[in-house]
UniProtKB/TrEMBL annotation, chain A:
Protein name: Sugar ABC transporter permease
Keywords: Cell membrane, Membrane, Transmembrane, Transmembrane helix, Transport
Pfam family of the protein (one): BPD_transp_1
Lineage: Bacteria, Pseudomonadati, Pseudomonadota, Alphaproteobacteria, Hyphomicrobiales
Keyword Cell membrane set for record: yes
Stretches that traverse the bilayer: 21-52, 78-102, 114-138, 220-240, 272-292
Gene Ontology cellular-component terms listed: plasma membrane
Source organism (scientific name): Devosia riboflavina
UniProtKB/TrEMBL annotation, chain B:
Record's protein name: Sugar ABC transporter permease
Magnesium in keyword set: no
InterPro entries: MetI-like, MetI-like_sf
Species for this entry: Devosia riboflavina
Domain of life the protein comes from: Bacteria
Record membrane topology: Multi-pass membrane protein
Length: 303, 282
């Protein structure tokens, strides 16, 4: 008690003014954040345990929505699609981005670097909804641009979007085209942090390039690689419009993702509780990935 | 050391790598060149093979046809602009205010609040959209472009980016002003904000393009034609105008991607800096 009195007496006018301004300045962000993020998240969690009926009100159903999700072969197939998409999209987005960054991380005229960044980053700026429409003509069977070139090389055309074993691959190809430039930019910046004298000394000693990469470059940029993997995973798990526009989730359910299922269930068949449960599952995966990354990156930095 | 590993041969390898990258870069640009070229062609040439990647002339009749069609393209364009501008201005204001408080002012609960805000980086739109939809349905904000804008007047990402940037700036000027008896608001407005200009530009451009490109949220909340935004409308347009007329769709598309492309051409430096800041400072 005496402690607080002492503190209170000790606080100067300046400190009080500072606190007042502080609260005032964070007020808009705090109010908006609670209204449009935190409260909706809590409500979604509540909804995920209920059967929502706009007329009769909600009914608590416990884990029923989650049980349904994890036992229905169709939703499991869609879950698996999403995980598969995430794994390959992340691997190739980050991998290709890193290779491109290594390729561009050398002496070249400024205008050339500008043009390269332009070419690889432009897709990042464009809505994937726009890009997907263009790609749907590239991926078309008979009149498609890609198949035209394949035939020109004497190869058989590929049924990019209509073959259920190919469709997901096509969507991943477009996703890498769209996003890899983002990771390239991050890696270019990270590579500039690798000490040059160390690299030069290693080169003088005759250390081969691949070993210099694994022994010096990669350890230096590993925190950024971790960040990139997490960032890419969070984005990939939410994949929606590229699939909606290219295949509508088909053929069959071959490319349907969790986000598509959420919209279909929540806004199509008004299974609000079930849709909420699916989005909770998605969020839990994101939280888990982030937690794993935190632990791993701490371990890595300590080594 | 063998002879191959000389300066000259290393430069040869450099140029070989650059040449390969150039071929890839050209491949990356193909979809853009194709859509641009298509938007200037009569529909009779739309499906021609081999595909062409350069416009034959600068005949804007497809563009005029889109604007004159029965699809309210200008209304849709205006919706997109309204949402993107309101969100961008809103975030610049709310995030820079919050960043100043988090980086420069001491108050009880500050670090807890900042942590809670950071947690928001992990929530996808999918986990907030259902309650927002239900709430909007009750308050009449469904099919109102401003409803979508309201959701994004602040962002965890923006507040975080601006705070990180502000923390890295020297405080000397602000402390001197405080000694001279300036109030905190004046210090924020006259000293901190001008210093933040690069971060503001980066956040502004990133926010504008991100908002311009929203699809999932827009599709759920803005389903009526009059209230649609461009990314969602484009797929609808394809059905209406489309029906074979690829050239019109591509003309509409060129107009739709124009703001993002222009922003990037003008301010490549800020975009790259902003992205780099988020990646490196984690």
């Amino acid at each position: 008690m005496s402690q607080t009195t002492f503190e209170r007496r000790g606080r100067s006018d300046l400190e009080r003014a500072q606190a007042r301004t502080g609260y005032l300045f964070v007020l808009p962000t705090t109010v908006l954040y609670f209204t449009f993020v935190l409260v909706p998240v809590v409500l979604t969690v509540v909804l995920s345990f209920s059967f929502y009926d706009p007329m009769l009100g909600s009914r608590w159903v416990g884990f029923e929505n989650f049980t349904r999700f994890f036992t229905d072969p169709r939703s499991l197939q869609i879950f698996w699609n999403t995980l598969r998409f995430t794994f390959f999209a992340v691997t190739f987005n980050v991998g290709v981005g890193l290779v491109l960054a290594l390729a561009l991380n050398r002496a070249m005229p400024g205008w050339m670097l500008y043009l390269f960044r332009l070419a690889f980053f432009l897709p990042v700026m464009i809505a994937i909804a726009f890009a997907a429409i263009v790609w749907s003509y590239f991926f078309a069977d008979d009149l498609g641009v890609l198949n035209y070139y394949l035939r020109l090389l004497g190869l058989p055309g590929v049924r990019w979007l209509t073959d259920s074993s190919m469709a997901m691959t096509s969507i991943i190809i477009m996703d890498v085209w769209k996003n890899t430039g983002f990771f390239m930019i991050i890696f270019i910046a990270a590579l500039q942090g690798v000490p040059k004298p160390l690299m030069e000394a290693a080169a003088m000693d005759g250390t081969p390039a691949w070993r210099r990469f694994f022994r010096i470059t990669l350890p230096y940029i590993s925190p950024v690689v971790f960040f990139a993997v997490i960032y890419a995973s969070i984005g990939a798990l939410q994949v929606y419009e590229s699939i909606v526009i290219l295949t509508q989730g088909g053929p069959g359910d071959a490319t349907r993702s969790l986000s598509i299922l959420i919209v279909e269930q929540g806004f199509g068949s008004f299974q609000i509780g079930y849709a909420a449960a699916i989005s909770v599952v998605m969020t839990l995966i994101i939280l888990a990935i982030t937690a794993v990354q935190q632990v791993l990156s701490k371990k890595w930095v300590q080594q | 050391m063998n002879v191959l590993d000389t300066q000259a041969s290393r430069r040869l390898i450099d140029w070989a790598i650059i040449a390969c990258t150039a071929v890839m870069a050209l491949g990356m640009l193909m979809p853009f060149l194709w859509l641009f070229s298509m938007s200037f062609r009569p529909v009779s040439e739309a499906y021609q093979l081999p595909p062409s990647f350069l416009p034959p002339n600068l005949d804007f009749s497809n563009y005029v046809a889109v604007l004159a069609s029965r699809v309210p393209f200008l209304q849709i364009y205006a919706n997109s602009l309204l949402i993107a501008v309101v969100v961008t201005v809103g975030q610049l204001v709310t995030c820079s205010l919050a960043a100043f408080a988090f980086a420069r002012l001491k108050f009880r609960g500050r670090d807890t609040l900042f942590f809670i805000l950071l947690v928001g980086l992990m929530f996808p739109a999918q986990v907030t959209i259902l309650p927002i939809y239900l709430g909007y349905a009750r308050t009449g904000l469904i099919n109102q472009p401003i409803g979508l804008a309201l959701m994004y007047l602040t962002s965890s990402f923006g507040a975080f980016l601006m705070r990180q940037f502000m923390v890295s700036q020297p405080k000397a000027l602000e402390e001197a002003a405080l000694m001279d008896g300036a109030g905190y608001f004046k210090i924020f407005w006259r000293i901190s904000l001008p210093q933040l200009r690069p971060a503001l530009s980066a956040l502004g451009i990133i926010t504008f393009t991100q908002t311009w490109n929203y699809y999932f949220q827009a599709k759920v909340l803005l389903g009526r034609e009059q209230s649609m935004t461009l990314p969602v409308a484009m797929d609808v347009l394809r059905g209406y105008l489309g029906s074979g007329n690829l050239s019109l769709v591509m003309a509409a598309m060129s107009m739709s991607i124009l703001p993002a492309v222009l922003l990037f051409l003008i301010a490549q430096k800020f975009v790259i800096e902003g992205i780099t800041m988020t990646g490196i400072k984690n």
